[in-house]
Write a structure and sequence with these properties.
By secondary structure, the protein is an alpha/beta fold. About 45% of the residues lie in helices and about 20% in strands.
Length: about 280
């Protein structure tokens, strides 16, 4: 059978999900699509032109644009079998919708996508269990775990971190302290907010990435629990105290000031609704 495997490329969870599916389906014909949110919809759309096969999506949030389109139903008609493995908020909240579109849906707030894939495809495989555990440790920031050093064994980006710190701008928006930062794509996605979270004390952190369309937002204190809703409001999604959404162009040195102003206006409107 032919398989079209679509999973996140920006962090270990999605990449390990790819690896687990490759291991489980070694005897099948597999095509891998490593995606991020700016090209997710286009990749799914391109699958309508591919030869029929089973489509598996992992570690990607079901956003409102995708839900309101006919894309999943069109893929079901073309390929017959769709599967969805995820732990993001919209996928969980819209599980019934996904179940109408997909043959198999596994969503859970406390398991990373790689763990959900492993449970379905490699339940007795000890190596798969080890890989999925590393994905969970990284994705849920389990730094106390004994295997955290392996999960976080990433090349140091000292210069990128220094430039990141130098880019920080603080603003007062509707009575909340918000920091904006421009990051080198080397620190995409979690590395930049994770680094700044140790350095600054604010109610909200917004990170833009040069050359990327994805915006990452982290919330703290009272604001924290509302950030996933803010990102969903912007046709993105999130969980816990963070999330993200995309804008209609790649961030550049020339655009970043206007981009920050636009996000600041959106935050001000959202904070006012939040406090109403």
């Amino acid at each position: 059978m032919r398989y079209h495997l679509v999973a996140h490329r920006a962090d270990p969870d999605g990449i390990i999900a790819h690896a687990l599916l490759e291991r489980a389906l070694a005897k099948e014909q597999c095509e891998h699509y490593f995606v991020d949110y700016p090209d997710f919809h286009q990749t799914l759309g391109n699958l309508k032109e591919k030869k029929p096969g089973r489509v598996i999506v992992a570690d990607m949030n079901l956003d409102t644009i995708l839900q309101q389109s006919n894309l999943l139903s069109e893929l079901r008609e073309k390929h017959g079998l769709l599967e969805w493995y995820d732990h993001h908020s919209n996928s969980i909240q819209e599980q019934r919708y996904l179940e109408k579109q997909c043959r198999r849906v596994k969503v859970a707030a406390n398991y990373c996508a790689a763990q959900l894939v492993r449970e379905e495809y490699l339940p007795q495989d000890s190596y798969a269990l080890s890989l999925a555990h590393l994905a969970h440790v990284h994705d849920f920031e389990k730094k106390e775990d004994s295997r955290a050093p392996i999960a976080y064994e990433l090349q140091q980006k000292d210069q990128a971190c220094q430039r990141l710190e130098e880019s920080v701008e603080h603003r007062d928006i509707a009575g909340y302290t918000v920091a904006f930062a421009l990051s080198d794509p080397l620190l995409y996605m979690k590395l930049a907010p994770e680094h700044l979270g140790k350095k600054i004390k604010v109610d909200c952190l917004v990170v833009l990435y040069e050359g990327k369309r994805n915006i990452i937002v982290e919330g703290y204190n009272r604001v924290g629990k509302h950030i996933p809703a803010f990102c969903t409001w912007n046709k993105g999604g999130g969980r816990g105290h963070g999330g993200g959404f995309t804008i209609d162009h790649e961030v550049t040195i020339d655009s970043v000031q206007n981009d920050q102003e636009q996000i600041a206006r959106q935050l001000e409107e959202f904070f006012q609704m939040m406090d109403a």
